[in-house]
Amino acid sequence: MAGTAFEAAAVVVAAGRGIRIGGDVPKQYRRVGGQAVLTRTLAALAAHESITCIQPVIAVDAEAFYHECVADLDPAHREKLRAPVPGGATRQLSVRAGLEALATGATPDLVLVHDAARPHVDTALIDRALAAGRAYGAAVPGLAVTDTIKRVETIAPGIGRVVETPARETLRAVQTPQAFAFRLLLDAHRAARAENLDGFTDDGALAEWAGLPVVVFEGDPRNRKITQPSDLIDADRDFSGPVSL
After folding, report:
1. pLDDT tens-digit series, residues 207-238
2. What is the spatial distance between Cα 20 and Cα 144, in angstroms, rounded to a whole number?
3. 213 vs 117: CA distance, rounded Å
4. What is the Cα 191 distance to its own chain's centre?
5. How far is residue 20's CA from residue 228's CA, in Å, rounded to a whole number?
6. Domain ranges of the chain
7. Radius of gyration of the chain, Cα coordinates, nearest whole angstrom
8. What whole-number distance in Å separates Cα of residue 151 and Cα of residue 164?
9. Interhelix angle for 37-46 vs 63-71, to 10°?
């Protein structure tokens, strides 16, 4: 893809081990509705006309799994994929690996960072991400929370003392895809590396640390992350379609 101009790129973070879900196959390579989670995620992003380049980030020992996923993609969608790059020990390091790989070619104005384990991402959500990213330079999708949230400090194993109860209307549960001006996010990641910081769990938090104003746009309750075995069951049902009786 070097030398090709494009409006927006996506980094797909697929280097996780999925320990919480159990089994020998990482969750992004499990099948839901007949296709791997990662296949569905890549297809959804590649189908969007504004995304013309996708940079997958995978575990170093997952190439066989990855190539099985890619083989199931529409040929036109495969054309948008760059060669996968190996991820790091943390999500932050994996994202930076993807950004640095994109920086070796013609760089996009905008980049979306998306979790491989969110296969329900759709065109409408991508549209909102791109629009917010273009308008504000740093934007993340979020949902209003319905539970009361407590901030606590641990005082004994399994016991936390309540420090604060934030007002629910000020809280959002954050998802991906998160959208950023490419150079701003790349510079933020490089600055964090220079400070030996690698514990940020999403790029919105890293952007905040770097001093970038981050906005929240409307997420999608269907765009849940596959984390537990029950999530795989639900996703399989979602993608299998209605059962005829």
Report:
1. 999 999 999 999 999 999 999 999 999 999 99
2. 25
3. 27
4. 21
5. 6
6. 8-142+171-240
7. 18
8. 5
9. 50
The C-alpha angle 139, 142, 144, rounded to 5 degrees, equals: 145
| Total residue length of the chain | 245
**Structure tokens, 127:** 């549209």
Are 198 and 204 in contact by the 8 Å Cβ rule? The answer is no
Q: Kindly report the pTM of this predicted structure.
A: 0.93
Rounded Cα distance between 130 and 14, Å, is: 21
What letter does residue 9 receive in the DSSP assignment?
Answer: E
54's tokens: 């996708």
What is the per-residue pLDDT across 44-54, written as a single tens digit (0 to 9) for each?
999 999 999 99
Given CATH 3.40.50.1390, say whether it is the number of domain 8-142+171-240: no
Instruction: For residue 193, give both structure tokens.
Output: 């590396």
